[in-house]
Structures are given as structure tokens and as C-alpha cells.
Write a structure and sequence with these properties.
Elements (H helix, E strand, L loop, with lengths): L6 E6 L2 E8 L4 E9 L3 E7 L5 E7 L10 E8 L6 E3 L4 E2 L6 E4 L5 E5 L7 E6 L5 E4 L12 E6 L5 E6 L14 E8 L2 E8 L9 E6 L5 E6 L4 E6 L12 E4 L11 E8 L5 E8 L6 E7 L6 E8 L3 E8 L5 E8 L7 E7 L5 E8 L6 E7 L3
Antiparallel strand pairs: 1-2, 1-29, 2-3, 4-5, 5-6, 6-7, 6-8, 9-10, 10-11, 11-12, 13-14, 14-15, 15-16, 17-18, 18-19, 19-20, 21-22, 22-23, 23-24, 25-26, 26-27, 27-28
Length: 371
């Protein structure tokens, strides 16, 4: 029997929807949706691809007990449809990002507005969410944590702490990457990577090369992509090896402009990130080729996404299709889902835009192939 194609998942308000994908045509079609106990944030699959973990938060009602959760969802192997799998786990406040470790034993959550910055929950053998893992009180998590990732070794965790731009009388708050050892979900401080003391390093997200000891960081507040080498035992140098701009022109004065999420192509030859604006700036996918000897990224394309402020995108596992999701309108166009065909050299060919009247809440795009 032919294997079903991969499934795209997109959050809109308190619903998470699934879309069938025609990778050859670079098209998607909505198949169904599931309502969750709050607005959908980030999601991450179990390594078995049988479960999807989704952060939710009841925005507009403040933070507090019962308002934020991690939800375990079962993925139907035949259709990709989602169903509730066990009770949701309460979180202290709404999580900004979540990820699952490589063994599928823990789910980590990152928080912009929680002083301890990160939590970990056990994943039970049946895929449901278990107890929260207590953490040491002295974790050095930085300021405004935007992402948590388990390193390829599985022995370390990175937090991306974005910091803040200067505003009024408030000076710039520097950003950093915070490195921790992890042992059965318990984190311990290993170090802080903050080039130039973290000033001018307002990082948002990072992604790892699939085969080489390199990772790439989207520096949101300064419209840059930087590349780090990873040395043995997950040692990260204090400064990046390469720093490149992500925009096609000088940022206009007074325009809110930043770089967004970042993903390395499955073949490791290209890295993509979004440029996002709230005004007369750039809203596109920046495409960088990767030198296979040095890891240096080189800008080769800006692909217009035909919508405003794409906060999330995903690449299909075969590496032939990229899907960007934006909740904001562009001129007289609505937000929605934009599909691209990925060409042999990594450049993007725009295929189509699916308009959606979302109210500014599209989130959590992800593509999962069948198990």
C-alpha cells in the first residue's frame, strides 16, 4: 500500500488544523481541525511521529493556574488527523517555544516572561505527559527566552535569550545563548555565549546542520544570520565564525523589522529564515547557500512571501517544498499559507497563497511525515 503523504499542521486561535500535502504540486488542502483548551503556540513531534505536543495559552485572561498547558495529541497513522491523548499538563504561564528530546522522554518549554525561563516534563511510555521535572534554583537563563533546543548529542540544551532593544530611558538588554547539561531532564549551567557581551546579539531562533557540527542563529533584533562551530563535548566558541546580513536593503528608519524563525534544509546545503516587518519593510524568506567545507552562509535569494510578518515556516521531509504561515495582511491581501517549491540549488519558486482571515493568530506550522 502506498504511504500517505506528509501532513501540515497549523494553529489558528484555539484550533489546530491538519492539511494534506501534494509535494510535487506544492499544494495543501485542509482535512480537519481540533479545538484545544487555549490559543495554540508552538508544537513539536515525538521522534516516533506518533504524537504531537502543543503549547496552549488562554491569552487575554492573564496568566495563572489552569490557563496554560502542554497538550499531547495522537497522530492517526493513516490520515494524519489529531486527537487528544491524555490530560494536558499545566504550565506556569504560556510557553513561547517547546521541543522534545531525541529519545522522546522529555518535553522542554521556554518562556519570555518567566524568571526561571525553562521547564521540563517527563513523557510517559504511552506518549502522555507526566510530571514536571524540578530544576535547580540557580539556572542562568538570560532575558526574554525565545527558544529551547536539545543539541544533536542529546547531552546539552540551548536556550536562546533575545534581550531587548533600548527604549526611552531603558538601555539595551543584551542577548545570549545559554548552554546547559541535561541529565534525565535536569539542567545544570554550562556557560553563556554572548558575543560582544551580548550587545547587538538579539537572537531569536537557531537550527542545527544535519551532519556537520555547525548551527545557525537568526538574530532578530539586528537582521543577521550567524554561524557557530560546535567543538567536542558540545563546547561552543564565544564568538560566531560568520555573521551575515539578512535584508536586501538598508532598513528604513522607524520601521519595526526583524528576522524570524530559521531552518536548515534536510540536505544541509541551504539555510532559510524569514525577514518580517510591521510597516514599509521586508517580508520575505531569505535563502542562504552553505559552504560544505566551512559552513559559511551566502545569501542567494529573497523570496517574497506575499503576506506580512511570517512567524513560522516548515520544510517537508523530502526537502522539495517550503510552507510559510503569516497571520497578517499584506496590502489588500489577507494573511495565510504560502507555498514554495524548493529547486535543486535551494532557491524558492513561489507557487500559491491560501488567504485566511485569521485575526492575527496563525502559529505553529509543522510538517510531519508518516511513521
Amino acid at each position: 500500500m502506498a504511504q500517505r503523504p506528509p501532513t501540515l499542521y497549523v494553529g489558528d486561535g484555539s484550533e489546530i488544523s491538519w492539511y494534506s500535502m501534494d509535494v510535487e504540486a506544492a499544494e495543501v488542502a485542509k482535512q480537519g481541525s481540533l479545538r484545544l483548551p487555549g490559543n495554540v503556540g508552538y508544537a513539536w513531534p515525538h521522534p516516533s511521529r506518533q504524537f504531537l505536543y502543543v503549547a496552549t495559552n488562554r491569552r487575554g485572561e492573564g496568566d495563572g493556574e489552569g490557563l496554560a498547558h502542554i497538550n499531547a495529541l495522537r497522530i492517526d497513522p493513516a490520515t494524519g488527523a489529531l486527537s487528544i491523548h491524555g490530560a494536558p499538563a499545566p504550565l506556569p504561564i504560556g510557553a513561547t517555544h517547546i521541543c522534545v528530546d531525541h529519545e522522546g522522554t522529555h518535553v522542554y518549554a521556554a518562556y519570555t516572561r518567566l524568571s526561571r525561563g525553562v521547564t521540563a516534563h517527563r513523557i510517559q511510555a504511552d506518549g502522555t505527559i507526566g510530571d514536571e521535572v524540578p530544576q535547580p534554583p540557580d539556572l542562568d537563563v538570560g532575558v526574554f527566552v525565545h527558544q529551547v533546543r536539545v543539541m544533536p548529542s542529546g547531552r546539552s540544551v540551548l536556550l536562546v535569550a533575545r534581550g531587548y532593544d533600548p527604549k526611552g530611558d531603558r538601555p539595551e538588554v543584551p542577548g545570549a545563548l545559554k548552554l546547559f547539561a541535561t541529565n534525565d531532564g535536569v539542567l545544570t549551567n554550562r556557560g553563556s555565549i554572548a558575543p560582544n557581551g551580548g550587545f547587538g546579539f538579539g537572537a531569536r531562533h537557531l537550527d542545527f546542520h544535519p551532519t556537520e557540527p555547525w548551527f545557525y542563529v537568526s538574530v532578530e533584533r539586528h537582521n543577521q544570520i550567524v554561524m557557530f562551530d560546535v567543538q567536542p563535548d558540545d563546547v561552543i566558541p564565544p564568538a560566531p565564525k560568520y555573521t551575515k546580513n539578512t535584508l536586501s536593503r538598508v532598513r528604513p528608519e522607524g520601521v519595526l523589522q526583524g528576522s524570524g524563525p530559521i531552518h536548515v534544509h534536510p540536505n544541509g546545503r541551504t539555510v532559510y529564515l524569514t525577514n518580517r516587518s510591521d510597516g514599509d519593510g521586508e517580508d520575505n524568506v531569505a535563502v542562504f547557500s552553505i559552504d560544505q567545507t566551512t559552513g559559511e552562509p551566502t545569501l542567494i535569494q529573497h523570496a517574497e512571501q506575499h503576506s506580512r510578518h511570517a512567524a513560522t515556516f516548515a520544510i517537508d521531509p523530502s526537502g522539495r517544498m517550503l510552507v510559510a504561515v503569516s497571520a497578517r495582511a499584506y496590502g489588500d491581501q489577507l494573511g495565510g499559507i504560502t507555498t514554495f517549491r524548493i529547486q535543486d540549488d535551494g532557491r524558492l519558486e513561489f507557487v500559491r497563497k491560501y488567504d485566511m482571515a485569521t485575526g492575527g493568530s496563525l502559529s505553529c506550522s509543522g510538517i510531519i511525515a508518516p511513521a
